[in-house]
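Hi support team,

I'm opening this ticket because the web form for multi-chain structure prediction keeps timing out on my end. I have pasted the exact lines I submitted so you can reproduce it. The total is 539 residues across two entries, so I didn't expect it to be a heavy job. Is there a limit I'm missing, or should I split the entries? Thanks in advance, R.K.
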Amino acid sequence: MVTQPTTDEMAFPMKVVAKDVNFYYGATQALFDVSLDIMSQRVTALIGPSGCGKSTFLRTLNRMNDIIDGARIEGTITLDGREIYDNSVDVVELRRRVGMVFQKSNPFPKSVFDNVAYGARIFGIKDRAQLTEIVERSLTRAGLWDEVKDRLNHSALGLSGGQQQRMCIARALAVDPEILLMDEPASALDPRSTARIEDLIGELRGNYTIVIVTHNMQQAARVSDFTAFFCDGKIVEFGSTEHIFTNPAQKQTEDYITGRFG
Amino acid sequence: MGASSMSIVVVALIFLFLFRESAPFVRDPGISSLAGSRWVPVSFTKQLFGIGPLVTGSALVTLLATLVALPFGVCSAIYIAEFAGPFEREILKPFIELLAAIPSVVLGFFGLAIVAPLVKSGFGLSSGLTALTGALVLALMAIPTIISISEDAIRNVPRSYREASIALGASEVQTVMRVTTPAALSGIFAAVTLGMGRVIGETMAVLMVTGNAAIMSLSPFDPARTMTATIAAEMGEVTYGSEHYQALFCVGLILLSATFALNLAAQRVLARHTRNG
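Hello R.K., no limit was hit. The queue was backed up. Here is the completed structure from your submission:
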């Protein structure tokens, strides 16, 4: 269980600063002047009703939207003070620093080992001993090592849903990211697997800056230090999770959190 | 249901019919007389029905055509599925379908008029009518099949694989080489197998451009005579019920079994692919 931060923890160094971000899918605008500061080594939750732009915002942070035809972004997003949409930025390097875990676990149809080693191999590591070390370390960090150490050469598709998702987290951790983006990482899992993922987020907190999109209010309250409430492509309210959940400033936030709307 | 089971009945009847017409040959001169290496069906002294040269011819032409069509077809499929913009795709796809719709006799003309002289002068041969010429023309027929089925297989690779790879910092090319294409491999294999099935059964174009000498040679620069061309060329002049007639039916049976096996193999692979995909 993560301890709730107090308001003075808002003074943590900022890892990512988004300012006046507007995002368009073709002619449709999905984000409106979104500004958000993401604290280093803390968990920031993005909550809000479906289609409110939280996933779109998450994907602007590692430029995953680049691969969508007709997508366009305005505004600035900086990582450690450097604009990530600058022409000089190496997108590959950015995505190494900003890892991502998807809503539906998406293992490659390869062995567990080859899945976790994928990123390292992309970056040119061929040495088997080094790869083995990376795979073991990443799976250990994702709390999966003991469960899969005897079947590293089996297909990852044979793992259970929860194991697959933790393996995807291990795969993302294997390239030593600084930030981990999680897009509803537990929404397709049973309660027990969900609890394991939440515990894992608690363990990773402090070493990684985590941004998590979730539909689940209790989950946001349990795992996050800060919460941003999105609605219709705008940020309605942002603050410490404790503050948002106990004493929201906006009526809309309160209605959403208490389940009266959304 | 009735119409679809009809097709099963038709296939079964064709097999049965081929068996019936070729059975007397298996009884009288015996199946071993097919095993020879000389096909001399019309002779005043001794008729020979060794299908060695015909099987060799079909195999050689099919393999050469596959060797040519495979890299072209698979690379085109990868390009169209992964890299081509929507506009490019809209132009390319109808042309590929058009290529598939060209009557094979027209491709045969093309082979005679263009490919054969090129092969002749390019390799300094006395005649351009060779196994290679036939293979090149047949490759043109196999390519559309290989492209469209491979492309389907590649496009059916779940988007999530692509996203996972991109999010891990892989470039588009790395993603295609390491994730998408391997994931589509069984579909690509099925595409190539179906392309081979098309090639081995093709008759008119090979009849026109391979020279049709029933010699046993593995050289691409020699003329070749395929099983299909043999049946097409000789069936019209054969005496009904003669040994020659029965021997041609034996060849037909072998041919049908080969294409049947190839199609079955491709379908099994495709079915497995869809289940896992």
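A quick check on our side: Chain B has a mean pLDDT of 91. Let us know if the file doesn't open in your viewer.
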